[in-house]
Amino acid sequence: MINFIFSPIGFFVLLSFFIAGALGSLIFQKNDRLANVWSGVFASAGSIWGLIFSSLLLLGSFSVSWAANSTSFSLLSVSFNIDKLSAFFIFVISLITLFCSFYGIGYVKHFYKRYNIGVLGLFFNLFIVGMLLVVSAANGIFWLIAWEIMSIASYFLVVYDRNDQENVRAGFLYLVMTHVGTVFIIISFFLLYKFTGSFDFSVVKANMALVPALAKDIIFVLALIGFGTKAGIIPFHIWLPAAHPAAPSHVSGLMSGVMIKTGIYMMIRIFLNMVQPIPVWWGVIILIIGSISALLGVLYAITEHDIKKLLAYHSIENIGIILLGLGSALAFSSLNLPTLALISLTAALFHTLNHAIFKSLLFLSAGSVINKNHTRNIEEYGGLIKFMPYTALFFLVGSMAISAMPPFNGFFSEWLTFQSLFQGIISIGSYVRWTFIISAGALAFTGGLALLCFAKAFGAIFLARPRSEEAKHATESSPWLLVGMGSLALLSLFFGLFSGPVISAIKNVSQSLVISSSAVSLVSVNSNQTISMGNFSSLSAPVFALIFVVVLTAVFLLVKYLIYCRQKVSVGATWDCGTDLTPRMEITSTSFARSIILIFKGVLRPRLHYDVKYHDSQSRYLPESRTVDISIKDIYSTYFYGPLSRFIFALSEKIKSIQNGNINSYILYIFGALLLVLFLVR
Amino acid sequence: MNTLFLQFLLILFFLSVVFLHTAKRNYWTIFLYGLQSLIVTILLVLSFLETGAIAALLMAGLILVVKVIIAPLFFFRLMKKYSLKFLVSTYINIPLTFIIITILTVVAHSSVFLPLTTIVSTNHFYLSVILATLFISLFLIINRKGVLSQITGVLSLENSIVAFAFFSWLEQSLALQIGIIFDIFVWIIITTIFMSMLYKHFKSFDVTRMEELKD
Amino acid sequence: MIIWLLQIILIPALSPLGIGFVKKIKAKMQNRQGASLIQPYRDLWKLFHKDEIISSDASWVFRAAPFIVFSVTIVVGSSIPLFGSFLDNYFTSDMLLVVYSLAIGTFFLALAGMDTGGAFGGFGSSREMTVSALAEGGLIFSLLTLAFHSGSTNLFKISSQVIAAYDFSFLPVILAFLGFFIVLLAENGRFPFDNSATHLELTMIHEAMIIEYSGKRLALMEWAAANKLLIFGALAVNLFFSAGIARSAGLTAIFWGVIALLIKVAVVFFAIAVLESVIAKFRFFRLPDILFISFILNIAAIALLL
Question: Does A214 touch chain B if contact means CB atoms closer than 8 Å?
């Protein structure tokens, strides 16, 4: 039985679950409920199988590979190779898919009778199939096909709610950006093919010596731009804050938690596995990009008051943190420090897993809140903790995890990233050390700013009084949604408490990649769950949690029951300074973030605009209305993409004059081109 | 017998295309096209006589029926329906047209296309002439403003391709022939639609009217 | 053991005394007698025996926050070196764990400030989170300097080793201490960041967040703030200038360790009190500049060290 799972058949079974879900959902599209339940059940079953499959692969020492024997296309071979890294990513994908599809069964109910549910199920399952193939494909062209399946399926999911024009525009931007990235990836694959003669990853890896250094550098830059566009690094991130809010919430969770990680997967695969040895400046560039993405991502998140856009910017920030780990791994491996490269890669992979968990948790709870309030604007929420207590609790868990608070899982992966950066500062000299110092500073600030952002988000959404009529009539989410979110919250706590064994397991994954066999791990976990980094640091998650819970209980019992038991606790109104208590008195998210925005106004460039309308425009004494406009425009749109798109449009207008509507001239063009080609081919 | 006969056929072929450029009335255009198709039929019959492949005879018969008989009849009917007697003019006047035809013929015979025309080295001369015919048919499409002559240009392009295939000993490939026949059928369908839509929209067959469509 | 018990209760037991000491010095500088040194104990006792009123808009976050904040200070207080650097705590004494646990306290304090929906609480939370977000970088980096100096991020190890190599690494340690001192002032709401005696809405940060609390919960919040001040003070003296700290588990060593702690912390609190009497509170938008100065000082310290 175990052998059966290990063989390629296990992987095919995995894919067939999702394909069955897709096809069945399409066939049953007339019956909304059946299509929804069918696709959700098959997706959940498939992800459970995927969990089993990948866990067995991770814990054992096998790898699954298979190649089709077709010779009709010589460059494309349908082959996949699942080693530990792929198995790890399949694990992450399956884990998040399980809970998102569970959640989806309840969530999609509010799309019934409005859209075609069968199509949603179809593209959802196809999306997951695409992702699974992307992380396991072993041939460049097959990989590109899988990448396209993933992108197109997610495009259809993004524009699913097509009655809202914003979503359609967001989907278009997403489509354009992902294909721009794909072009870069294709060019880098072609360059690899040109020098090594094959698209198969294993053949490329074996023939790396044939690639000259300059070509390697060009491949690096192209691949970084291409995969970075999918991962959402700055400045190629503009599709993220548009596309993630537009998709249905369980898809947003999946996109943000898993799809952008496929870009990270390919970066690890190409930079650490295939294209070796590498110069040190690659790692430095990725460190710099990671720091910038982390800082700017969290700063833009602070300025947002659309809940999903806020979470999307946080994804950018966390990708920055993952890139910090990845960049230090690259730097260490190029400086021949495989022990430290092991730690950095483990940190990056651990943060990938953790971010997938808590980001999808946050998106799912945001989706429940949006469902009940029919708006994404935080300013119209407020006081929801009384109406949706469980959703609030899960969002709180997600916020604590993403702000790196022990004992949740976010803290431990950030701790590990910090450790690898610290080791870098100690062990490396010259300018590379300064990059590490700056990255550590960026990480430190990011943690604090993320804390601010989630205090703002949680406070504005759930605390104080409701600020709109809709918020007053909110109710708790349905059980499906609660189970999906609750399991993710529990997982967040679980992976935090048991981060020791998890780190050991991920260390095995990284060890399979780090090229030197002399890489001895500096991170060790001893029997009482203490994670120690050589002699430098150590901490223990369960002990901390235990101590904290014990102290909390002790304090609570002491204070509540032992000291002055005759105290009377009564409920009154909040102090209102003598005026009426209105929802306008409480702080909104815009004002909460105003201080930080003004502090960073050099980077964010907020605009403040006043407008007055007078009763009598002649005398201008009594204003009828005053408007204050506080806005932040994304500086990338203004300074980078704006001029670029204007230039492209101007160029297109000029070229349009070739198209003069005359058939004869078109045939003349064809004839001239034919002659030219015949001349050249000679 | 064969070489002389072949050369005669070829000269006729070449001249038919050249005179297509000068035909002022539609009747001549269709007649010249029919003549071309007849030549191709004869070529295929010759190949059947040489090689005894029944496929070639079948093809010859088919081409005879479709290109020599049905297509000109179809065009005649079209002419009567829309009562076109006279052609629309060309872009370039006649002397310049002939100069360009000469240039194209020289180009086709030049060393540029030597690899192409020496596929079968004995037929080198024939292949060069056919290549020149090909280019001149293309030029016909470019030069003319009327839909009918453009269609005729494409059809003569087809004929020259078939002749090229014959002279480079490729005519045995059944797929080639079937492909060409299918191509013609599809082209006839498309041109009917094209012509009817053009006429419905612009009330004339002048293709330059389509310039009004651009934004 | 007894030593661990001492470690756990030392901070909560001594922190009101620390607050009282600071207030006394300030009073003396203002030419007053001032309240007695043990007045904060009496205040806490009074608050513990009062009734409470909880706002109707508050949720469980408001009710639970004081307990969480107080427990965090107890847990952190027992994980830092107070009187002895010989204790082996590999579980919770990591520098980053301490920093982020204190962040838990700040987070729940900010949430509690927003929970009641009053006009003051939200502003206090906003300002507190802003200051704390910017101070975290300086805090981590000043502790990092010491970690590089002593080769470990375990706080007990740091306190046992810093004194050994004062010769040429004195300057980085002093720079890091200055950076740490600025963060101490920021995190505890001392001048020039916050005035703990004010109740004007334009100037409150910490006071604004706890303005709706009363009775036992207010006592816990005040006590937690005092704990935090003592924790930062103990960190300042024991990590940077660890003379006098007990290096072995002997009774006399521990006794002298406690005395050394009291004396050193008294010096630091004296400096805080003098600072509060001499300078004014800064305008809010000048505070980020000071915090960036702290960060730069720490980076300079690291650069000099390595």
Answer: no
Whether cis (ω within 30° of 0) applies to the bond prior to C66 is no
Chain A within 8 Å of C198 (Cβ-Cβ)? no
Q: What is the DSSP letter of C192?
A: T
pLDDT at B205: 63
- By CB neighbour count within 10 A (0-12 exposed, 13-18 middle, 19+ buried), where does C79 fall? buried
Q: pLDDT band at residue A123, thresholds of 50, 70 and 90?
A: very high
Chain centroid to CA C13: 15
Per residue in A484-532, pLDDT (tens digit) is 899 999 999 999 888 888 888 888 888 877 655 555 666 776 665 677 7
Q: Do A664 and B115 touch (CB under 8 A)?
A: no
Cα–Cα nearest to A549, from C39, C72, C299: C72
SS3 A651: helix
Optimal mutation site among C75, C111, C129, C211, interface A, most CBs of chain A within 10 A = C129
Is B142 near chain A, with CB under 8 Å?
yes
**Cβ atoms of residues C245 and C84 within 8 Å:** yes
Cβ–Cβ below 8 Å for C133 and A451: yes
Is there a contact between A223 and A185 (Cβ–Cβ < 8 Å)?
yes
Structure tokens at C296: 């730069």
Q: For residue A456, what are the CA distances in angstroms to A244, A303, C83, C136? A: 20, 10, 39, 18
Cβ contacts of B115 on chain A, cutoff 8 Å:
682
Amino acid code (one letter) for A664: N
| pLDDT on residue C17 | 93
Task: Tell which residue, A680, A669, A668, A678, has the closest CA to residue B108.
Answer: A678
> B188 CB contacts (<8 Å, ≥6 apart)?
B71, B74
Distance of alpha carbon A268 from the chain centroid: 16
Q: Are C81 and C155 in contact (CB under 8 A)?
A: yes
Q: What would the pLDDT profile of A641-662 be if each residue is shown by its tens digit? A: 888 888 999 998 888 887 777 7
Supply the mean pLDDT for chain A.
Answer: 86
Q: Enumerate neighbours of A (3 or more CB pairs within 8 A).
A: B, C
Q: Which residues of chain A neighbour C121 with C-beta distances below 8 Å? A: 587
CB-based contact A336:A383 (threshold 8 Å) = no
What average pLDDT does range A125-152 have in this prediction? Answer: 91
DSSP secondary structure letter of residue C281: P
- Buried-state track A566-603, b at ≥16 Cβ within 10 A, e below 16: eeeeeeeebbeeeeebebebbbbbbbbbbbbbebbeee
Answer whether residue A332 is part of any domain. Answer: no
For residue C8, what pLDDT is reported? Answer: 87
State the total domains in chain A.
2
Q: Residues 135-154, chain C: which have Cβ within 8 Å of A?
A: 135-137, 140-141, 144, 147-148, 151-154
CA distance C78 to C72: 10
pLDDT at A540 over 60: yes
| A512 within some domain | yes
- The residue of chain C nearest to residue A548, with distances taken between CA atoms, is C75
C122, C132, C151 member nearest A592 (Cβ): C122
Same domain, yes or no: A406 and A500: yes
Q: What is the pLDDT of residue A372?
A: 86
Q: Do A656 and A543 have their domain in common?
A: no
Residues A305 and A457: their CA atoms lie apart, in Å, by: 8
Last residue of a domain, one of A562, A577, A609: A562
Range of the domain at A399: 341-359+378-562
Mean of all residue pLDDT scores within chain C: 86
**In chain C, what percentage of residues exceed pLDDT 70?**
97
> Residue range A261-280: average pLDDT?
86
Residue A487 included in any domain: yes
Task: Give yes or no for residue C70 having a pLDDT over 90.
Answer: yes
